[in-house]
């Protein structure tokens, strides 16, 4: 039997029609895989799409067989799909350089002022990262930077839930401090983007485990508290199908009194069934909160390559 999941097709379709789509969840649940699949899906639909990674890693180019680019450089991956990695330290340096006028980056980076600001302003790196992402969603900024025009969709492959909420909450934190000047202006515009249901959407990625589902529920609560927003959907990754009916399980039980091979096979079948049953119990927790839930089947293979991600994109196309 195929995995069962509930969703509202019209609502799910709209997540790819926003300017910003934020993808987050517990670490290790496959956020980057789902972000890449969504990027492929949006590009197939004719949208010029940019996937943004945060930090030092650039996993998207590697997935597409492209050498790791310099940080902060937009890298074409295939037609209508590109990626970029934002280094928060570099973003903060560039932002302070803009505010500081003609002061060179080298001088600013070596100055005590930069080090003091970075240490004394918790959330500053998160805020400038969000400013950078906001700029990537702006049509006029994109036209200045790229020959082919602006992006229709920016997908943020966000950090894990706790860090992601800190990232998304940074404009409100700084907005309470800086009420005038360029910092206040940028802060307000980022906040407007994050709070606008017509311009941004939020997806959680989870495994069907107790901890990952709990973290998705906490993400929903955090989004409401910080931004007054809800998750558009929860993508549950690596689902096992329910393979056996009750009658088939009864027949399998009879094998446990047979030869050693039959006993081993029966135990393995029972274990797979129990694991699938547990996963679907976790899906029920999400449904009780009225989430739109999209199931992605477990991909069998030693390594998740571009072909596998493309297959996931095809699967998501049925439900997004």
Strand content: 5-15%
Q: Low-confidence runs (pLDDT<50, min 5 residues)?
A: 1-12
Instruction: Specify the number of helices.
Output: 14
Number of strands: 8
Overall 3D shape = elongated
Return the string of H and E elements: HEHEHEEHHHHHEHHEHEHHEH
Q: Kindly state the mean pLDDT as a whole number?
A: 82
What does this protein structure show overall?
With 320 residues, the protein is α/β, with parallel strands linked by helices. It has a single domain (9-242, 290-317), classed as 3-Layer(aba) Sandwich (Rossmann fold). The protein is 53% helix and 15% strand. It is built from 14 helices and eight strands. An eight-stranded mixed beta sheet has the order 3-4-2-5-1-6-7-8, sandwiched between helices. The longest helix has 29 residues, at 260-288. The chain is elongated, with a radius of gyration of 22 Å. The two termini are 21 Å apart. Mean pLDDT is 82; it is low at 1-12.
Briefly, what is this?
By secondary structure, the chain is of the alpha/beta class. The chain contains 14 helices and eight strands. It has one domain: Rossmann fold (3-Layer(aba) Sandwich).
Based on the model shown, name its key terms:
14 helices, Rossmann fold, 320 residues, 53% helix, alpha/beta, eight-stranded mixed beta sheet, elongated, disordered N terminus
